[in-house]
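Q&A log
Question type: sequence-to-structure
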Amino acid sequence: MAHHFLFQKKNPRASFDRALAAMVCAVVAVGAARAASLPEHGTGGASATPSVQERGPAATAPADIRAAIGQLADLDYAARVKAARLVRRSAAAQAVPALIEAITQHKDGFVRFRSLVLLTGFSDPRASEHMLAAMTSPNDRLREVAYGYFELHPDRALIPRLLTALEKEMGDFVRPAIVRALAAVGDDPRVRDALIANMTRGVDFHRSTVIEALGDYKHAYALPKLLEIVKLEGPLQDDAAIAIGRLGNKQALGALATLQRSGAKELQPTLTAAICMLGVNCSSHLSYLDKVIAFADDNPGNQELVRPAAAGLAAAAISGNRDALTVLLDKGIPSMDPIRAPMALAAAKVALRNTQLMLATLQQHKDPAGALTLLAEGFDMLEEDLEEEQFFVTVRKGYWAAPDGSPVRKLSEQLITKLDF
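Response status: OK
Response body:
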């Protein structure tokens, strides 16, 4: 999966480990120990602030906004949260100029990065201009945000620039953003040729990001090559299987069924989820994934099955399967480490990639508090600043669109408090 993981998210100066989700299991116990004494979000302990009543855009003095922006790189977690919150809740007329000033002039690269992310939450037309400039920034964080922005706002006129960037970009975590921006523009022959070529060349990590993007954007032209890749033993089998499932072409069922008979046991949860996404016996396949997680929980030494099972449930949920999300939450909420970390990460991914499904499910779940804690833990381990910001924007918009006292308002308040935004 082409997602970033940060084991010390509370320190903005910490280096990105960007490890796979499976590795989180080895360190999550350390995070739990810290949670017993530190008020950090996503731990189930006290939040950095008490319950925060959302007040909407407010007139804020420009000097106060500039001061808050300067604290976006503060080493103190609570100070950073408070600073970002003040900027988010300021009226666009005051916040946007201050953010643009920081993006273009601030000496701290991390402040420029965080300012660029926060700018995306205001839907200001000037954002595109600064994203275009950031595409050539020496700061790889800014480049990543810029390409991520153009995934959210596809522009076919940028195809030549994106293709050139794909050939030249050396940043391991910028390339996925370029790939996704290209995949988002639709079925263009130039893009198709470039993405197909990158499915079969380069290191596995780069190939994985291409495979995932082609599946996410349902580019049917990728199916023949995906069917070749899924037959090859190795780390790309899981990615190819999920991408095949996302394409939804039942003609691929035979290849997946064959692998079910011959593939390694660690591959079986992924194949099961992929077949479910093809629309074949989905209820029985979700039941199987439920049992896999229970088996791994009851039988030490089988935890390697949890990551693909959780990822498979997340993939099905992102595709719109609410039952898959319910299974993920129901198994994740009572879980303990080392089972819990991949479950929390999978839940966070669903929140980012299918926010509406997550919000609708949380409103009706039998244990919303437990689900929110699981989700917060996932956010704590997942480093996807731009996607997280879009999640925050969606939640706040839903809050203001809902009547006072409604379930949506209540849930939104709980999310704002639990996730510290």
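Response note: Residues 1-52 have pLDDT under 50 and may be disordered.
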